[in-house]
Write a structure and sequence with these properties.
The chain has about 375 residues and is α/β, with parallel strands linked by helices. About 45% of the residues lie in helices and about 10% in strands. The longest helix is centred in the middle third of the chain and has 44 residues.
Length: about 375
């Protein structure tokens, strides 16, 4: 921090020591609490109180009134606040330092160099508090008063660096180096800003290439889905006539997956689609998830694996592969379609009334002729696929 140009006047320590000696020889001195007694004397205080109570600390209140006497010139008062802020800064009490520098600036003294120092010191304090934009505003204000103020330029370059404004940081460094070509901090900051700028540009290029590649892959995937006449349900559609059977309405947005596993449909090396598929068991509120269901694989192939052993939630031991029926729901018409478990996934997805929602085909699994199934389908129209 920049040192004060003058010293604030105040009472000498002799009166306080005389008072302490008087207490000692008149019986007021307590040897067991001498440290506390000393800490009440301003010149021996290790830390000043946050708020000064005239009754508790009359000597300190007296000193404060002398230091910040409004009868003193604005320049003297501003300088005193600057010195106070510097002391707080040394103690790393940055919040109080900000207050002191701000009070100094409020004096609106005519010494523009002093005001530039107050702005620069407050900027340094704000910087250590992590308030980089406030710090940058202060150094800009300082440079308006003193354009070649090197400390303000250095602090401004550091602020831009923290804000990831790398070109601006380098520009500020160049300005400072025209004043002092050997200023170490500016040389180091310019080198760091240049290195980070290059890294940022490289990362941007990589991100764009990755985005372009992913977009290309999505378009290839969408083309494969269109060629198979598979329809994607668009979340924005509310009415049945808004759900187009035509391929032109298909969108990449329909490939977004809401599955808990975060998996998505993909094309394998042989050009076949593999879908994340969700099975729902409404009777027990259970689910099964297959992350990669090959489009040419039959439903029965997965059912036999999934129920090779009866699940623990099947308390009645009735979920045998031969007892199970699979359905999908036509939400627009509120109708159900029963699958033939010998069908492949592709055959079902190509059905004119099947729409893939959120990128994840979903099917219901129920036990045939069970009381729950009869009640579940009561009043609903059910179609059976061949």
């Amino acid at each position: 921090m920049e040192a004060a140009e003058g010293q604030a006047e105040g009472a000498g320590p002799a009166s306080f020591l005389d008072k302490f000696q008087t207490q000692r020889y008149t019986g007021g001195f307590n040897p067991e609490s001498w440290e506390q007694e000393f800490d009440k004397i301003p010149m021996f205080m290790k830390k000043s109180p946050a708020e000064i109570d005239p009754e508790q600390n009359p000597d300190l209140a007296c000193l404060q009134s002398i230091i910040f006497d409004e009868d003193r010139s604005p320049e003297d008062q501003a300088n005193t606040y600057k010195n106070e802020g510097n002391e707080y800064f040394k103690e790393k009490n940055y919040k109080k330092a900000v207050i002191s520098y701000t009070e100094g600036l409020k004096k609106k003294c005519s010494d523009q160099d002093l005001n530039a120092v107050l702005y620069t010191n407050r900027a340094a304090t704000q910087f250590y508090l992590g308030n980089y934009r406030s710090a940058l505003s202060d150094v800009i204000a300082a440079r308006k008063l003193k354009p070649n103020h090197l400390k303000a330029i250095i602090r401004g370059a550091l602020c831009h660096l923290e804000l990831k404004n790398f070109p601006e940081a380098m520009a500020w460094c160049e300005e400072g180096l025209r004043i002092d070509s050997k200023e170490k901090k500016l040389v180091e900051t310019r080198a760091k800003a240049d290195r980070l700028k290059r890294a940022e540009q490289r990362d941007v290029r990589k991100a764009k290439l990755k985005e372009k590649k992913e977009q290309s892959q999505k378009e290839v995937l969408l083309t494969a889905i269109k060629e198979r006449n598979i329809k994607l349900f668009l979340e924005a559609c509310k009415e049945e006539d808004e759900i187009s059977d035509g391929l032109a309405e298909m969108s990449l947005n329909g490939l977004n997956s809401d599955s808990a596993m975060g998996t998505k449909v993909y094309l394998d090396d042989n050009g076949n689609l593999n879908w994340p598929v969700l099975f729902l068991y409404p009777e027990y509120g259970q689910t099964d998830f297959i992350s990669a269901f090959h489009e040419d694989c039959r439903f029965i192939d997965h059912i036999l694996v999934m129920f090779a052993e009866l699940p623990p939630w099947d308390s009645e031991r009735k979920y045998h592969p031969s007892n199970l029926e699979l359905y999908f729901e036509d939400e627009a018409r509120e109708e159900m379609y029963q699958l033939n478990t010998e069908n492949t996934l592709l055959q079902v997805l190509q059905h004119q009334r099947y729409f893939v929602k959120a990128g994840t085909p979903t099917f219901l699994v129920l036990v045939k002729l069970s009381p729950f199934s009869k009640n579940y389908f009561f009043g609903k129209k059910v179609h059976r696929l061949k």
